[in-house]
Amino acid sequence: MQKILILGAGLSASSLIKYLLDRSEEYQWKIRIGDLSLETAQRKINNHPHGEAFLFDVSNLEQCNAEVAQADIVVSMLPASMHFSVAKACVEYGKNMVTASYVSKEIQGLQEQALEKNNIILNEMGVDPGIDHMSAMKVIDRLKSQGAEIIEFYSATGGLVAPKYDNNPWNYKFTWNPRNVVLAGQGTSMYIKNGLYKYIPYHKLFQRLLRTNILNYGEFEMYPNRDSLKYREIYGLANIPSMYRGTIRRPGFSRAWNVFVQLGCTDDTFIIEDSENMTNRQFINSFLKYETNISVEDKLAKYLGIAEDSEIMYRLRWLGVFENTPISLARATPAQILQHILLKKWVLAEDDKDMIVMQHRFVAKMEGKTQEILSSMVVEGSDQTHTAMSKTVGYPVAIATKMILTGQIKARGVKLPIDSCIYEPILSELETLGISFIEEEREI
Amino acid sequence: MQKILILGAGLSASSLIKYLLDRSEEYQWKIRIGDLSLETAQRKINNHPHGEAFLFDVSNLEQCNAEVAQADIVVSMLPASMHFSVAKACVEYGKNMVTASYVSKEIQGLQEQALEKNNIILNEMGVDPGIDHMSAMKVIDRLKSQGAEIIEFYSATGGLVAPKYDNNPWNYKFTWNPRNVVLAGQGTSMYIKNGLYKYIPYHKLFQRLLRTNILNYGEFEMYPNRDSLKYREIYGLANIPSMYRGTIRRPGFSRAWNVFVQLGCTDDTFIIEDSENMTNRQFINSFLKYETNISVEDKLAKYLGIAEDSEIMYRLRWLGVFENTPISLARATPAQILQHILLKKWVLAEDDKDMIVMQHRFVAKMEGKTQEILSSMVVEGSDQTHTAMSKTVGYPVAIATKMILTGQIKARGVKLPIDSCIYEPILSELETLGISFIEEEREI
Q: How far apart are CA A321 and CA B283, in angstroms?
């Protein structure tokens, strides 16, 4: 029996674990699942005879090494910062590894050791990063093989709520780590457009929007995502004049979110004085000028140049940020307080389903014509466990794990899924699981 | 002979060195001055028989320890980050020390050792921090002794150019470290007004201005300076309802500077691609949207909501930021490029003189009345060496050094100049050197 070691059994691991357990009899796998909560690991296994739960603490190096030593392959679904100690154990004991996270410099540094041991450390196998790379490379490789010159590549992804359950004025609910949503976009975003580099500081990001239509799901907006420039090399498009990666939201979200950015409410670097005795309204007021005889609402609208009866103000009021609700969080940063307020409103209801949308837009010159190619994916969640996020993150990881075990993926070293020998079979199987791309093409 | 060790002989040390050399015969001091440039140290000594220059490298711990061991008192005018290794040597060898920089947590941590060795490590003895503390505490202690309740305290300082030489549209020239000017205000500024905490993110800082008049020097504006809250405790004003510390500029400076902040030109965290082949105009354009058929000037004005014929645009044009001047700086951050552009324009001419302005504003309740007390200082530079900055930083350091050597300052431990036994004699002597405060008082 081949032994699969899965580290981390949180929400994002549900579909991954189910996929592997469902096939464990056929492939004769034994699946050991470790989590800081034994109960979480047990619940995910649900008494499956091929599964085995154990209490796992990544900071216990001895345990980490012992577990890795006994496995045939290791799947790390731990928080991104914890992958490295697992990866080190993997190259030490000559084990293959799969993660859904961005490859870190430290893990990249294991390249030689991994090759020496004939291992693969396969990173960025989730949805974004993961499915985005695979589906983009499929189109890029095809266009190149057709002799096309790719002159524009836009790629964007969003985790949203499925249309049927999309019933709040933000058209948004938390379907993933709320902290990451509150902190999203901090730093400088950079991309290139017609050969000109463009840099956008955080405080301008949510005003620099593009619009798109995705299949029959209607209108979306997007804002650029940190460093789009480095993907030119990764995707083999070193000289492309336009390259942009973005985050997708429903229209209107970003300009309303921008209010929190402008005020400073997303700052995670300092503690608000006496936060435990503050109300939502006082929190907002602490970022506004001291002025009496004017309401906090009017002051905010005036400060940011927003009409008092605008959609933006309506979205803010709906969140309750102007209410005198006690915050009751001691020694909290602005970002923590904002997250606390949002968690009450942007919550998925029991029967709500999430949705992942992704769209690539290419412009390519070929045989004297200029073609626009859209490649779009929409995945809706099946239920609260097998969410769109859990499926799109977990299935590619699971399929890659299977294909490494069966020898179908033969690549070695520290890898991203950008080679056709990896992405082709995985994208094919994802289609059978309801994760597929629809292409639209037109001459422009 | 008592031995004074001065480490660092840069611009800020000129007046300090002259003050001590001028009195070295009278007090029988031997003054050893170390700098990374032997020539700089020699120039400052100018063959004075009591002075001795040597090549000093603070990273050479052995040299640092040997020099400190031979001294009676150490004056560190090194960059702030380098004080700690000097301070450690001082407490090890039982030597007194004076610096003009903010006390760091590491230096604060030497308190017990300093007391054991009966040493004083006297920090924040320059102008800001330094003269600001001393002159503020003088008024605070007097008001308290009169039974007054201080309900507001505003304190602000600015390094500017003297009126006669103030001949550019920014009313500003570099009189101090240009890098610090470009990066000024990054982070969050916080103060308290009538009991309400106020937080201002960097991207709003240069739009949240106050105005003031200083003596017969006319109008100035100010913006708040990082953490004003912690000074409540330092100044013994724990429960004061309004406390604000700011930076002073001439009116109009901040709103024009804000353009660079809004664009992202002051960011020091990433490298601009291909910066060596860029022009000023392309640099500015890289922060603006991609739009053809509209000039960079119009695009900027539209993006930031500024009238094309406004004072702000005039100030920007005057700087040459829209010109096709090559930048010729390889692998530079936006902040480095901006500094490079500004250095050509905000330069002090040969005969220009600088100016330091400082103003405290107190509101105090006393015997049923509410009094406003303004305490203001303006110091102009004497020449390009004995600038206002050099005098206001150097004289308090020099006087404190003298008073520790003569036993007039008896305080021990890690100290700021907030005790009357330190600030009283120093402020008195500063008056004889032309550094004095004028008080204005009125009932409000």
A: 39
Span B263-292, average pLDDT: 97
No. of H helices and E strands in chain B?
18, 16
Whether residue A81 contacts residue A105, with contact meaning beta carbons closer than 8 Å, is answered with: no
How far apart are alpha carbons A222 and A121 in whole angstroms? 32
Using an 8 Å CB-CB cutoff, list chain A residues near B197: 272-274, 286
> Is the CB of A203 less than 8 angstroms away from the CB of B203?
yes
Nearest by CB to residue B204, choosing from A187, A262, A273, is A262
pLDDT of amino acid B12? 87
Residue A26 falls in which region: left (phi positive, over 0), alpha (psi -120 to 50) or beta: alpha
Alpha carbon distance A251, A438 (integer Å): 22
Q: In this model, does residue B71 exceed pLDDT 90?
A: yes
Q: Is the pTM of this model over 0.90?
A: yes
Q: How many helices (H) and strands (E) does chain A have?
A: 18, 16
Please check the confidence at residue B176 and state whether its pLDDT lies above 90. no
Residue A143, amino acid: L
- Cβ separation A198–B269 shorter than 8 A: no
* Sign, CA torsion A302/A304/A306/A311: negative
- C-alpha–C-alpha distance, residues B327 and B346, integer Å: 17
Q: Chain A: which residues have CB within 8 Å of chain B? A: 187-188, 190, 193-194, 196-201, 203-204, 208, 229, 262-264, 267, 269-270, 272-274, 285-290, 305, 334
Residue type, A5: L
How near does any CA of chain A get to the CA of B154, in Å? 15
Decide if B386 contacts B3 (C-beta within 8 A): no
Q: Domains in chain B, ordered, with CATH? A: 2-123 (3.40.50.720), 131-251+351-386 (3.30.360.10), 271-332 (no CATH)
Determine the distance in angstroms separating the CA of B309 from the nearest CA of chain A, rounded to an integer: 21
Which amino acid type is present at position A301? A
CA pair distance B12, B385, nearest whole angstrom: 9
Whether residues B290 and A194 touch (CB distance < 8 A) is answered with: yes
pLDDT computed for residue B11 by the predictor: 84
For residue B79 the two structure tokens come to 């960059």
The pLDDT score that the predictor gives to residue A195 is 97
How far is CA B267 from its chain centroid?
Answer: 21
Q: Write down the pLDDT at residue A351.
A: 94
Please check whether residue B422 is in contact with residue B240, taking contact to mean a CB–CB distance below 8 angstroms.
Answer: no
Going by C-beta distance under 8 Å and a sequence separation of 6 or more, which residues neighbour residue A181? A174, A342
High-pLDDT (> 90) share of chain B, %: 98
* DSSP H or E segment with residue B197: strand B196-201
Nearest CA among A358, A233, A270 for reference residue B186? A270
Residues A305/A312, Cβ–Cβ less than 8 Å = no
Output the pLDDT for position A176: 85
Secondary structure of chain B: what % helix, strand, coil (to 5)? Answer: 40, 25, 35
* Measured distance CA(B102)–CA(B210) in Å, rounded: 25
User: For B384-426, how does the pLDDT look when each residue is reduced to its tens digit (9 = 90+)?
Assistant: 899 999 999 999 999 999 999 999 999 999 999 999 999 999 9
Answer yes or no: are the C-beta atoms of A91 and A113 closer than 8 Å: yes
Cβ-Cβ contacts under 8 Å for A42 (sequence gap 6 or more): A53
Which of B188, B191, B198, B199 should be substituted to probe chain A, the one whose Cβ sees the most A Cβ atoms within 10 Å?
B199
Distance CA B30, CA B357 (A): 34
A158: tokens are: 């969003």
> Which residue is it, tokens 């930021």?
B321
Alpha-carbon distances of A137 from A140, A151, A290, B17, rounded to whole Å:
5, 15, 54, 66
The C-alpha angle A246, A212, A157, rounded to 5 degrees, equals 35
